[in-house]
Structure formats: structure tokens, C-alpha cells
Amino acid sequence: MQTDLTGLDALAWEPIRRSLNRRVVVVTSRLLPSKRNRVWAVETDVRPLIVKLSLAGRAPEEFEALVKARAAGVDVPYPLFLEGDLVVMEYIGGESLERMVNHLFSADAASALGRWLATYHEKLMDKDSDTVMGDAVLSNFKYVDGRVFGFDIEDSRHGDPLDDVGQAAAAILGSEPFFTPIKFDLCLRLLDGYEAVSGLEVVESCRPFVAKHLRKATTGKPIYRRGFTQVADRLEKGWPRLV
Fold first, then answer.
1. CA distances from 17 to 4, 26, 46, 87 (A)
2. Which domains can be identified in the chain, with CATH numbers?
3. Which residue, 187, 24, 27, is CA-closest to 101?
4. CA–CA dist 20, 16 (Å, integer)
């Protein structure tokens, strides 16, 4: 693999060294897809790392959210170093949850996501309000040996946990193949996983949130606006009957 340190070398050599508390050899580096940040997977002679440059200036918020989540026992990458808009964190292998659910149709992965979200909401709840992830799309998770790890939690905030659940469910339904029976089955597996950990009923109560996020998704998929809107309207009345 060819090393690609474009835009990274001037920024991250010292943070990488300080995150591992020693001099290291960078073996390879590659730029990962990201809509809002610049993210590199960096292989060193010590261990692999993720180096993330926050283009929105939210690196301190992400670092703090990762510290709190790890301390609470939630599966997220271990935060190693923060400097300015740069965060260095543990590299998590495994498969993209988006691939596992939306392409391989893994019911186990969908259920594991539901359990992760319920754990996140339960562990990070404080006495005054609930904490939500804020960006619960499938590309922000990885699936490793039956466990889900969450990423990109810099948007975590106080809010309604059902908003995260609805966004995750909409991410399943609103990806190709759209609204097929297997996608609704996977969506229900997600909700069952959430209920198994939380002890709360969410299958019915989350429907308005799923509908809301399907409508929001049409901003990036205008040619599907009519279909997404129709499904959102139906979900507000009830889940489809699958036969």
C-alpha cells in the first residue's frame, strides 16, 4: 500500500509521537472517506491509529465525548491525544456496519446496533436529561466479532434517545434496496435489540422519528423524495404488514 501523507505530515507527526509517548515509524497512511472531516488511518511500527482533523473545530467535543463513553463502558475508540483541531484515537478493525446491514443483510449486526444505542443512552444518561449520539447513521459504526463500535460522536448532546433510534432505522430503510421486506425485518431487529437492553417499548413509539429522518434524507436524495415521503406518511400510521 502506498503511503499517502497529503496534508498530514505537517500536522500530525508530533501528535502521533506524543499519543504513543515514543518515536515511531509511520509505515502506511491512507485518507478515509468523510464528509465533514479529514480522517487518516495510520499504520505505525507500534500500533495502528486514526488521526482526525475536525474541519468544524469540534475536536475538543469529540475527545471529551470519547473519554466519557469509554469511562462508562461504551464501545468506542480509545482517545489517545488531543491538540487543537486534531484527535488521535485507537484504530478499530472489523467491518463497516453499513456493509453488514445494507449489503450483507446481517440480522445479527442490526440487532447489535440496537443494543449499542441502548447501552449508549443508558450509560450516558444523567439526572437531568438524556444524551444522544446525534449522528446515528450506519457509516459511523463498525462490527467486530459480534460487537458494534461507534464513531463520530462529536455531535452528542442532550435530546430524545428515540431520535437516534429513528435515524438508525431510517438509515436502514432509506438505503438501496429501498423499503424491501428484508429491510423492514432488519429495522425491526434493530428495535428488538434496543428493547432487549433498555427494557423500553420502542417499536411503536419510534415510528414518528423514523418518518422524520426519512423526510430529512430526501435533502440528499431529491429524486427519491416522493417514495420516501410516501413511506414516511405510512409509518406515521403504523408498520407495514409483512407476509
1. 18, 10, 10, 13
2. 9-90 (3.30.200.20), 95-235 (3.90.1200.10)
3. 187
4. 7
CA gap 230, 81 in Å, rounded: 46
Strands of 95-96's sheet in order across:
95-96, 141-144, 147-150
DSSP for 12-53 reads: HHHHHHHHHTS---EEEEEEEP-SSEEEEEEEESS-EEEEEE
pLDDT 10s digit of each residue in the chain, 243 long? 334 444 565 566 778 888 888 788 877 888 888 888 899 999 988 999 999 999 889 999 999 999 999 999 999 999 999 999 999 999 999 999 999 999 999 999 999 999 999 999 999 987 677 899 999 999 999 999 999 999 999 999 999 999 999 999 999 999 999 999 999 999 999 999 999 999 999 999 999 999 999 999 999 889 999 999 999 999 999 999 887
DSSP 110-139: HHHHHHHHHHHHHHT--SS--EE-S---GG
Written as nine digits, the cell of 212 is 422524520
Q: Are 7 and 15 in contact (CB under 8 A)?
A: no
Place of cell 446496533: 113
Q: What is the pTM of this model?
A: 0.92
d(CA 111, CA 109): 5
What is the C-alpha to C-alpha distance for residues 152 and 176, in angstroms, rounded to an integer? Answer: 23
